[in-house]
Amino acid sequence: MVAGISSPRLKARTVPVSALDAPLRDEMYALFARYYADTERERFERDLSDKDEVILLEDAAHGTLQGFSTLKLVTLPGEDGRACRAMYSGDTVIARGYWGQSALGLEFLKRLWWRKVQRPLEPLYWFLISKGYKTYLLMANNFPVHHPRYEAPTPPGTQRLLDALATQAFGQHYSAADGLIRFPRPLGRVREDVAPISEEEAASNPRIRFFAERNPTWMEGTELACLAEMTFLLPLAYGWKGMLKRLRR
C-alpha cells in the first residue's frame, strides 16, 4: 500500500429482497458470476426471490456494490418442544480487493442478535452451506459453538437438527452420511483462481485441512452443511476478539 493512501473499506446495510430494483439485481448477478462458474441468471433470481433479506456491501467512499449475502429465516420444531430457528445464508460474494474486512461479519451478527432478542427463549442458529473454505472459516473463526469441526464430533442432537435443516432445504441432494450436498450438475462452483487451497495452507491451518477432508470435491460445487449457535454472549466475544486484533497491529 502506498504511504498516505488508505485501502478501500466496506460499509454494510441490510434491505428486504423486495427493495432490490432491477439495476441493483443486475450488479449483484454480474459480481456473483465474476467469482462463480456455472451460474444462470434465472436460477440466481429464483434463489434470491426465496430469501427474506440481503446484506449489501458497498465501498464506503463511493457507494459502489462490492459484495452481498442473502438471508432467510427458517423454523423447525425442536426435540424439547420449543421451536428452533436458523438464519440460512444463501449466495455470498465479496470482491477480491475487500477480502478480510469485518463489515459482513458485523452486519450479519447484528441481524442474528436482533432475531435472538425478539425471541430470547428459542434456540437460534446460523445454517450455512460451504463450497469454499473462506465461507467455512467465517463461521469457524467467529462462532465458538459450530459444527462440523475438527476439535470434536458433532453431538447427536445437533446432527439431527443439521440433517433436518439440510433435508428440508435440499431434499435428496443432501446426504446425512457425510453431510454433503451434491447436485446433479454444478450450481455455482468457486472459480479455480478465486480461493484455491494450497498444501501449505492445509498443513498450517487445521480448519482449512478439516474442510478439505470433509468436502474433498468442493471444487466441483459440492457443499458442506454447517451449523453454528447464536448466543447472547457471542457479540461480546466477537468484540473482544476484534480488540485483540487491533492491539496486535
Which features does this protein show?
249 residues, alpha+beta, Aminopeptidase, two-stranded antiparallel ribbon, 8 helices, 26% strand
Task: Provide structural commentary.
- The protein is of the alpha+beta class and 249 residues long.
- Helix content is 37%, strand content 26%.
- It has 8 helices and 11 strands.
- It has helices at residues 22-35, 41-49, 103-118, 133-140, 156-170, 199-204, 206-214, 234-248, and strands at 10-16, 36-37, 53-59, 65-77, 83-94, 124-130, 146-147, 174-175, 180-181, 189-190, 223-230.
- 28% of the residues are buried.
- The model is unreliable at 1-5 (pLDDT under 50).
Give a summary of the structure in a few sentences.
By secondary structure, the chain is an alpha+beta fold. It is 37% helix and 26% strand. It is built from 8 helices and 11 strands.
Number of domains: 1
SS-based class = alpha+beta
Shape: globular
Tell me the distance between the termini: 16 Å
Please give the number of β-strands: 11
Report the CATH architecture: 3-Layer(aba) Sandwich
